[in-house]
């Protein structure tokens, strides 16, 4: 085991590190959540990473996305992520897909070769298609619920989708997954009540509204809640792949 993973091996053991080096994990969505998940997986010794995202790095990403720097502006996020991963671990294999995951292209990805799937995309249709593909191929999956318009990173928790509450995205996912006969989905979510984007809590002028996907208002976000969600996602992947968990 290379020295760069020595501290991790002290916790997980040699056998677990070998398992991680042989593992192939797909991260769908390389944004505020997925980027931090991707990096933590790379730093934990995952041998092969598949990165799926169609977006390019832009100025509005700089406040929260780990791959976003002035030097990566205009790059495809997956390309910036690949460079970053290989700078961390040159022995890693990184497969990039400059495309947005949709139900229509779900069969374009080698789910049968994945050891784990991380869902960090932000559309219900995509999340449902990912859950269906994971169910079809028997691949473990963990899905991020809404991290936008939140301020309390400490409120994030891991649960089964059917045990969630409060989160509007989780509510929609519960209903739609039930229709599809999917009985379980591991998720990271928060019971925090979402803030209203654009509201000035200090009493000054409101900032101009920005647009998100499909012309919808973009959610407010910050440097810590999406990051925390991504790190929790990655932590669950590592613990599930190795079977090593803490006790408390």
From TrEMBL:
GO MF assignments: tRNA threonylcarbamoyladenosine dehydratase; ubiquitin-like modifier activating enzyme activity
Positions of the THIF-type NAD/FAD binding fold domain: 11-244
Chain segments carrying region Disordered: 197-220
GO terms classed as biological process: cyclic threonylcarbamoyladenosine biosynthetic process
Entry-linked Pfam families: ThiF
InterPro entries reported for this sequence: ThiF/MoeB/HesA, ThiF_NAD_FAD-bd, Ubiquitin-activating_enz
Protein name in the entry: tRNA threonylcarbamoyladenosine dehydratase
Signal peptide: none
Superkingdom classification of source: Bacteria
Residue stretches of biased makeup (Basic and acidic residues): 198-210
